[in-house]
Structure formats: C-alpha cells, structure tokens
Amino acid sequence: MSVWKLLSGVAAGLASEIHLPGNGSISALLTSLSGRHPHADGGVAHNQIAFTIGVIALGAKMAKADGIVTRDEVLAFKDVFRVPEGELENVSRIFDLAKQDIAGYEVYAEQLAGLFKHDHRLLEDVLEGLFHIAMADGVFHPNEERFLAAVAKRFGISENEFSYIKARHVGSTKESPYDVLGVTPDISNDKLKTHYRRLVVENHPDKMVARGVPSECVSMATKKIAAINAAYEAVAKERNI
C-alpha cells in the first residue's frame, strides 16, 4: 500500500477515534500519533505517516510565508515527491486541513521534534523536504528562510547544521563546497574522506527508508547526493587528492 493511501486511512481513522469535528485537525492527528508506541503499527510505517504529515502540514504553513497561498504549493509537493495523480486528493486533504488548522507551525514543529526526538537525522530529512518544496519555484523568499530557520531551531538543528543544509539547496556564489559538505577548510584529507563516505551512506535511499522516509519521497536524496558528490570533487581537485 502506498504511503498516501495509508496516510488517508490513518487520518480518517484517527479523526473518528478522537472525535474531531469535520475532517479533524493536523495538530490533533500528530498528538494522537505521539501517544502511540512507534512499534505498535510497525516502526517504519509509524515514522512514514508522521514524516509525510509533517512535511505536508509544515509545507502548507510555509506557503503562507511568502504571502501567496495557491494550489501551486500542492502541485509543487506532487512534483518534488512524485505523488501519483490518483493520490493527489489524499495530499490535498492534509494540505487543506493544515491551512484551516488554527494551530501555528510552531505546534507542528514541536510535535514532530517530540515524535522524532531519538532520530535527529529524520528531523533533518523533514527539513530537507521543506527546502525542496521552498525551492520548487526556483525562488527562495526571505520569509521562507526565516520560516525554515525557526522550524530548524525547534527541531534542535544548530545554526551551522542549518547553513549546511541550506547550502545544498540554495545556489549561491557565496557558498563554498566546504559549506555543502558541512565541514571547515581546515579539515584534514583523511577526515574529509571519512566524512564524505559517511554522508553518502547516510543519504542512500535504503538508509532513508529504514529510518522512516517513505519510498515515494526518497527521490529527494538524488539531488542531495549529487550536491555532495560535486562538492567533494571540487575540494578533492583543489587538494589534488
């Protein structure tokens, strides 16, 4: 079963279970998920649901950050995460609930931080997904940057980690390949090679799926690994290694 159908079923079931009015709310859905043991329905499946809800819901809140809220944001999510046409309605449902929910993005971010408190990498994956959505139109609005920085802070992601993630997504002549790799220029060649190999392993699609990123979403790893490889090649050429 696709994560989109799984998500739709769980959302509907939880809405009925906790007696939410109408179609329920995302904040209540995340609260219900946080009260469930991660292994009750299968650890990976639990994380996939929370991850997908988190990216869609925060993406909906981020859509307001640049002052424009249109269906384009849903389409951007579809393009970035390769949502089949038949499943777009399920994504739209969560997106619309998030827009209508009176809870602010802070609530969502803090709930996700609690859900994934033992998996910092999965929180980074959520932030990576939001960067993909923010850059879908090729423009990185200052309000989007402020939004993502605030989300990162609530995730416990440091300013340095945030700058490294940003460097992999936002093209700029100011960004050096060291920024993209998340290291400083004084790193030794041996440590650089070890760090590079670790980045490649951590961002392999199989690793991402194992920690809870839906298989439908791991295409975002392609762009990330390409950026990491290009940065390493630039540094290796510079150092003649």
What do these coordinates show?
With 241 residues, this protein is an all-alpha fold. The chain has one domain (3-172). It has helices spanning 3-17, 26-34, 43-63, 72-81, 88-100, 105-115, 120-134, 142-155, 159-169, 177-181, 189-202, 205-211, 220-239. Helix 2 runs parallel beside helix 6, helix 3 (43-63) packs antiparallel against helix 6 and helix 6 runs parallel beside helix 8 (142-155). The N and C termini lie far apart (46 Å). Residues 17-24 have low confidence and may be disordered.
Order of helices and strands: HHHHHHHHHHHHH
Low-pLDDT parts are 17-24
Separation of termini? 46 Å
Q: What kind of oligomer do you see? A: single chain
| Rg value | 18 Å
* Distinct helical segment count: 13
- Shape call: globular
- Calculate the mean pLDDT score and round it: 79
Classify the helix fraction into a percent range: 55-70%
| Major sheet summary line | none
Relative strand content: under 5%
Number of domains: 1
Number of E-state strands: 0
Structure classification: mainly alpha
